[in-house]
Specification:
The protein is of the alpha+beta class. It has one helix spanning 2-51; strands spanning 90-100, 107-121, 126-147, 151-175, 178-199, 203-205, 208-224, 230-244, 250-260. The model is unreliable at 19-51 and 60-76 (pLDDT under 50).
Length: 261
């Protein structure tokens, strides 16, 4: 009997347990759903923050546009400032031709050595300097001169000329490697001359003479610098006005090459 009662009580307890679980489950799940709602709101808040547009970055200050580099060697380029302040002397060798003017009509090979130095800048492109020139040449000529009562007199002469001319030089830069210059100076020349004259009725005469003369020089030329130490150029025109004894006035054309000491 006890066993039967225990079985009945156990069956009743087992039958009642599903109904109790069904009644208690809604009350237990409600707090869980209520707890999930704040979490959903909490998750929605960052999403709203993320949806807001990010502030635009502050504008970056732009510097001036870089200036395009000019063509190397162009005439519009400013020359480097250092070329005006060359502390070293330059030695130039010049070789060319000299042509006599007026009565002293001759053509001669001329050799000249120049020592040049820049003194100061006159502007961003111009500079003032000094040039000391030492030159030598051999001039000669022959003429037949009609002389009244004597006929034609044949004259021949030759002269060795030595001159030293200090001059001021103004240089203007057309570009970083190309310059033009003008010279003006006063100097002295010495001439050792010899000649011969065939005079009808007298014979052959060989007078020898020499003398000292002053020299006024005006010249202009250009120079090109392939390297910082070497320059090549030309004296395109040069006038040497000589006053005194010896070889007379002349003009010359010379090519040059110089090197920094």
């Amino acid at each position: 009997m006890i066993a039967r009662r225990l079985a009945v009580v156990l069956a009743a307890a087992l039958a009642a347990s599903p109904a109790a679980r069904a009644q208690t489950s809604p009350s237990r799940r409600a707090p869980a759903s209520a707890a999930k709602k704040p979490a959903a709101k909490a998750l929605a808040a960052p999403a709203a923050v993320a949806a807001e547009p990010a502030p635009a970055p502050a504008p970056v200050a732009q510097g001036p546009a870089p200036v395009a580099a000019e063509t190397a060697g162009g005439l519009s380029q400013e020359p480097p400032a250092g070329w005006f302040a060359e502390p070293e002397w330059r030695i130039a060798t010049l070789l060319g031709a000299e042509f006599g003017i007026g009565d002293a009509s001759y053509s001669a090979l001329k050799l000249r050595v120049d020592a040049e130095r820049t003194v100061r800048a006159l502007s961003p492109r111009a500079a003032l300097g000094w040039v000391i020139s030492a030159g030598v040449l051999h001039a000669s000529d022959s003429q037949d001169v009609p002389v009244p009562m004597m006929g034609t007199v044949a004259m021949e002469w030759g002269a060795n000329l030595f001159e030293v001319v200090p001059a001021a030089r103004v240089t203007y830069a057309l570009g970083p490697k190309l310059w033009i210059h003008g010279d003006a100076g006063l100097g002295v020349a010495y001439t050792a001359a010899s000649g011969s004259v065939d005079v009808p009725g007298i014979g052959h005469v060989e007078p020898v003479s020499g003398g000292v003369a002053g020299v006024a020089r005006l010249a202009g030329g250009l120079a090109f610098t392939p390297t910082p130490n070497v320059r090549v150029g030309a004296q395109l025109v040069g006038f040497d006005v000589r006053f005194g004894d010896g070889v007379g006035s002349a003009f010359s054309f010379l090519v040059s090459a110089s090197h920094r000491l």
